[in-house]
Amino acid sequence: MNKNQRSPLFHIAKRGALSWYGAWAIRGGAVLLALICCGVITSLVTGEDPLAVYKAIFEGSFGSSRKIWVLLQNIAMLLCVSLAVTPAFRMRCWNLGAEGQALIGALASAACMILLADKLPSWAIILCMTVTSILAGAVWAGIPAFFKARFNTNETLFTLMMNYVATQLVSYYCVVWESPKGSGQIGIINPNSHLGWFPQIGSYKYLLNILIVAAVCVAMYVYLNYSKHGYEIAVVGESERTARYVGIKVDRVIVRTMLLSGAVCGLAGLLLVGSTNHTLTPTLVEGRGFTAVMVSWLAKFNPIWMILTSFLLVFLGRGAGEIATNFGLNSSFGDILTGVILFFIIGSEFFINYEIHFRKSGEGEG
Amino acid sequence: MFDLFTFLPRAVVQGIPLLLGSTGETLTEKSGNLNLGIPGIMYVGAISGVIGSFFYEQSTAAGGFRPLPAILIPVLCCLVGSLLMGLLYCFLTVTLRANQNVTGLALTTFGVGFGNFIGGSLIKLSGSELPSIILTATSNAFRTSFPFAEKLGVIGKLFFSYGFLAYLAVIIALVCSYVLNRTRTGLHLRAVGESPNTADAAGIDVGRYKYAATCLGSMVAGLGGLYYVMDYASGMWSNNAFGDRGWLAIALVIFTVWRPNIGVLASFLFGGLYIVHMYIPSGMNLAVKELYKMAPYVITIIVLVLTSMRNRRENQPPASLGLPYFREER
Q1: What angle do CA A316, A321, A322 make, to 5 degrees?
Q2: Which residues of B are less than 8 Å from A301 in CB distance?
């Protein structure tokens, strides 16, 4: 035996399975660490007491009943986009184009609101908006899916590029439909007639959105876990070869799943235009298409856990915004804090999936 | 009237940040890392350079400003800033084997936020009325071009009128191309990106190659951000001015089918496409300009589709692009 042979200090092995509470304990620990880290950073930058910082984070979301509603609305929209990308992700098809798909859905519904005003009654306009925006989103995701299925084109890069095509298309129509003339913006659409505006439930402006997204969430959970389609998606995601061997038509599953993914994105766009903002801008989706990737991934592609992860990200984002305004910092400070928190959570996944074995003393000396 | 001789130099200047970004990203992707954090890294590179030169200009406000340190300090700051971002990405994706897409997007969020935050704070510090920082002295140092450029007329304007970083960008791209295709190191790197298992079995240290390529790539991309601020924007930093150039750099990687030497000309083409809407007479119809801005992305998509349709082996993305490597995985 070679006496000089030494085993490394530690080695890494894949964990079999970690109980779900163990995994969430690790994630919770990571969030806690991240919050401490953020508090320290903020205190260093502002010279404020860390406790005041945490108080501000909390008040950013729960400070008033209006803030709570805004929080819920933001969670709903982020959740909707996250639900949309999830079926594709389960199939290991990286749909990074949720931003564009939602935007194109928003464009379709705005087009219905503007072009059909005064021609149809409001309920018919809403119907048209729903159909066209869901179709538009589906088509926008269907194009990359077709090429992925047919020629194995890289879907990550394709969907990423489609985002910017959508953004420019929206910019184009923003100028075409500008009002007032010369502003380069579409103001509030149909501000007086409220044609194509979704009905409010009571006095709660955002309640309808929240209910729709909750329904989509449950439906997606059932679809992914208890339907034949969901099973096929899971098999394709695990191994394409196995799927082909057992007779699943992989091409069809890819296209079908991406169409679904795009359709739900289109729905998100519809809700943004029809129910929340009543206007169209190139930045309407506010980067949710990218945040959704993280939400979905953090929840391990499980729709129910996604409620928690999207709450977490929205809560932190709004908290960081509150810190920025309270302590006179620039609003980008929120992005820094969100980034730091994400790094911690991303890093923590390692400790869930792998375990580290340290060299035992005496062993490895040869 | 479409003036070709004012358009072309502008297209080149517009293309250089894209060239640096895409060269960096190509290097990174060749090691199998799909770094979607490049837009963030370019922001950080730019703002790090701005921090360096801001304090240098402040400290020499009374006099004693010399061009050499004025160039070296921002370049060094930029390299360090983007290196740190690259290290963070590597630590998360290579050492901790995190998902590359998620890490990259988080890095972009962080980087853009960092850039705008520091930028905003510096603007406050400088107490200026405008929402921007202007570093004219440093920028002049960066923009110094060949003294004989003016005498040569059109040729001088087309080939010799740029700051040193532009030439450096072309040299980096050509060197990158040479190293990737003609040297043993490049062969090893490509092996790591194509099939890390095979590379590992052949005795190549996969982790080290991934770290080295990604960190170097980040530094090159960071220089792209620096070039944008110091040369293209004449030393003026304003928040969000950099725009979506980082994503365009990623598009350029696909467009060049992972070849930095093609990137030299392709980046000028992209630069031209990016600004062509300002030069095409469209009369009163402002909307059409927005459609012209779509061109680089549409062309990238077409190239992506065509390369996958022709399915030539040398034009494909690295086979293990985006996948983490774990030796014990089957």
Answers
A1: 95
A2: none
CA dist., res. A273 & res. A107, Å (int): 8
**H-state helical runs in chain B:** 4-30, 38-59, 67-90, 100-126, 136-143, 153-159, 164-182, 184-194, 196-201, 206-227, 245-255, 260-279, 287-292, 295-310
* Interchain contact A297–B (C-beta under 8 A): yes
Six token digits for residue A208: 């309808």
Distance CA A109, CA A104 (A): 9
Assigned token pair, A147: 């090429």
Cβ atoms within 10 Å, residue B130? 10
For residue B329, report the phi and psi dihedrals to the nearest 5 degrees: -80, 140
Statement: residue A9 has pLDDT above 60:
yes
B128's tokens: 């200026």
CA angle A6, A11, A13 (to 5 degrees): 145
Kindly report the backbone phi and psi dihedral angles of residue A10, in degrees, each rounded to the nearest multiple of 5, phi listed first.
-150, 160
Query: HSE-up of B185 (CA within 13 Å, CB side)?
Result: 11
In a domain, B117, yes or no: yes
Q: Do B121 and A346 count as a contact with CB atoms less than 8 A apart?
A: no
- Residue contact A342–B304, C-beta within 8 A: no
Query: Which structural domain range is residue B32 located in?
Result: 4-60+68-315
- The CATH number of whichever domain residue B24 belongs to comes to 1.10.3470
Q: Which residues on B lie below 8 Å from A297 (Cβ)?
A: 99, 102
Query: What tokens appear for B291 in the block?
Result: 């459609």
- Structure confidence by residue, pLDDT tens digits, A153-195: 888 889 988 999 999 999 889 888 887 777 777 888 888 888 8
Cβ(B14)–Cβ(B225) under 8 Å? no
> Taking CA atoms, what residue in A is nearest to B321?
A154
Residue A137: C-alpha distances to residues A78, B169, B210, B224, B289 (Å): 16, 39, 37, 34, 24
Question: Mean pLDDT, 10 residues at a time, over chain B (330 residues)?
Answer: 76 92 94 92 94 87 80 93 95 90 90 88 76 80 76 76 89 95 93 91 92 95 93 82 84 88 91 82 70 86 86 79 77
- Cβ–Cβ contacts within 10 Å for residue A255, how many? 19
> CB B287 to CB A172 under 8 A?
yes
CA pair distance A321, A275, nearest whole angstrom = 24
Under 8 Å between Cβ of A40 and A31 = no
Across A2-36, b (16+ Cβ under 10 Å) vs e yields: eeeeeeeeeebeeeeeeeeeebeebbeebbeebbe
Window 105-144 of A, Cβ < 8 Å to B: none
Q: Which two tokens stand for residue A252?
A: 């069809």
- Residue where the block lists tokens 């006179």: A328
* Contact call for A290 and B326, based on CB within 8 A: no
Q: Which two tokens stand for residue B147?
A: 């003294």
Query: Is residue B115 in some structural domain?
Result: yes
Indicate whether B102 belongs to any domain. Answer: yes
CB contact under 8 A, A293 and B298: no
Structure tokens belonging to residue B272? 């031209």
pLDDT surpasses 50 at A363: no
Q: Is residue B29 assigned to a domain? A: yes
Total of domains in chain B: 1
Amino acid at A39: G
The Cα A74–Cα A210 span in angstroms is 9
* Contact state of B113 with A333 under an 8 Å Cβ cutoff: yes
Q: Does B297 touch chain A (CB under 8 A)?
A: yes
CB atoms within 10 A of CB A311: 18
Q: Which of B:85-114 have CB within 8 Å of A?
A: 88, 92, 96-99, 101-103, 105-114
